[in-house]
Amino acid sequence: MLKSGSANHLSSLTLEKAQIQNETAPSRIIGINIETRPDYINNEEIRYLRKLGVTHVELGVQTLSDEIYKIIKRGHATAAVAKATQMLKDAGFKIGYHLMLNLPG
Predict the structure, then answer these.
(1) Where is each Radical SAM core domain found (predicted)?
(2) Is the pTM here over 0.90, yes or no?
């Protein structure tokens, strides 16, 4: 399910509990925004995100240069960004990118 990539990671069980609490709260959250890596997106994750009520996915893209990805040892290439973007778009998610300026290369 959702993979840990930072200190802000919540377990799947915690996310499911939060969704259940939201469904019965007097003031409901109408959209959930998550941040993840492009290479973590697959059909199983997309179904799970929909189940949780996620509406907006921000991808940690950092750069659109495969050369820079190699230098910073990101662990994926621009193909993963394109694939994740298309999969999320096809599933109806709003998508944002996190980019970093002045990376080496």
Answers:
(1) 24-105
(2) no
